Amino acid sequence: MLDLKMLEVLELRGTHHWVPSAQRLFGGQIIGQALVAAAKSVSDNLYAHSLHCYFVRPGDPTVPVLYQVDRTRDGRSFTVRSVKAIQHGQPILICQASFQVLQPSPLQHQFPMPVVPQPEDLLTVEELIQRYLSQADLTESAKQGLNKLLANEVPIEMKPVSPAHFYRFASGEPRRLFWARARGYIGEGNMKLHCCVAAYVSDYALLGTVLLPYSKYKARFIASLDHAMWFHSTFRSDEWMLYECVSPWAASSRGLVEGRLWRRDGVLAASCSQEGVLRVKPVTENSKL
Ligand SMILES: CC(C)(COP(=O)(O)OP(=O)(O)OC[C@H]1O[C@@H](n2cnc3c(N)ncnc32)[C@H](O)[C@@H]1OP(=O)(O)O)[C@@H](O)C(=O)NCCC(=O)NCCSC(=O)CCC(=O)O
Asked: Which of 70, 95, 150, 199 shows its CA 20 to 30 Å from the CA of 31?
């Protein structure tokens, strides 16, 4: 999915392999591909350290996305690229990404990683859904919802730390924790690619954190408006990382979310922030989903 076709020196084309049920392109895919496009135009000794994006139009799953890269600045330490993702002649995402030469420093600190069960002690999303499906008292619409989730072949493996909370069976604090890794093997050595995959993963289930205190409401319209991300250390996106998502604020049909991706040895790998639009309606039926 992140293997873009080079059309010209600064023009690349991306295609889609997984489209969410909302039938608009997954934001994480567009961010990940935009970062791939930017990264291809910088030298090998530069590492992505941040990106800032606006989603300005919904992505159309029926056509590919064209990525146009502008070499905004090449500096001694920092290099900036601007990327426009285009469909039907109009931008769907605008993104700035910045890269840095590795520079050691005595200034080093980070928050401690939350204490949670290890991935080996938790069930995957698929195992959880199978378990819920085997419950006798499920309504027909709950069954349909679960089967739809099961058929949803997301290229990310996930293990929720608190499944009832993850699936919004009850209201709770706006905080979601799950282990995540890319499906398949990527291997060591390509840090640029691991950052692009982490950018993809970072948009998954992030904005839904806003809804966690409101189990009496369901989303009528939900879309991310912007996304910023900072990369802090080396990591493997095909190995389990803990994704901690927190929403400190919601009002005016918008919600703010902050995400932290932790390596399982406790090192903070990446952070992100996103604002999204969320329009809701009351849950009317007795379904748990
Ligand atoms: C956010 C928007 C829609 C901009 O909002 P606007 O309201 O300005 O756009 P619009 O085209 O005028 O309206 C869009 C739809 O919202 C309705 N609408 C607008 N204002 C409204 C209001 N105040 N109350 C009720 N409905 C309203 C319109 O009628 C229209 O519905 P109708 O369509 O029925 O006519 C746009 O910038 C956009 O689509 N950006 C891309 C967002 C995106 O694709 N993000 C990444 C994927 S989201 C993602 O990946 C998150 C993953 C996750 O789900 O967690």
From this structure: 150
If we measure between CA atoms, which residue out of 195, 216, 219 comes closest to residue 205?
Answer: 219
223 CA → ligand 1 middle, Å: 6
C-alpha 57/C-alpha 237 separation (Å) is: 28
Assigned token pair, 273: 């922030």
Among this protein's residues, is 130 annotated catalytic?
A: no
Question: Mean pLDDT for each consecutive 10-residue tract of the chain (289 residues)?
Answer: 90 91 90 96 95 98 97 97 98 98 95 98 94 84 82 90 86 95 91 94 95 93 97 97 98 98 98 98 69
The answer, yes or no, to whether any atom of ligand 1 lies below 6 A from the CB of 26, is yes
Q: Provide the 10 A C-beta neighbour count for residue 273.
A: 16
179 lines ligand 1 (CB under 6 A): no
Two structure tokens written together for 139 = 């309504």
**Which pair of structure tokens corresponds to residue 154?**
């997301």
Point out which residues pair with 31 in neighbouring strands. none
Among the atoms of ligand 1, which is closest to the Cα of residue 222?
54
Q: What is the pLDDT of residues 115-157, one digit of tens each?
A: 999 999 999 999 999 998 888 788 887 788 888 888 888 899 9
- pTM of the full structure: 0.93
In the residue annotation, 224 being an active-site residue is answered as yes
Question: For ligand 1, is residue 254 a contact (CB within 6 Å)?
Answer: no
Query: From the CA of 117, how far away is ligand 1's center (Å)?
Result: 37
Rounded to a whole number, what is the distance in angstroms from the first to the last CA of the chain? 30
Tokens (6 digits) for 148: 């739809």
221 alpha carbon to ligand 1 midpoint, in Å?
7
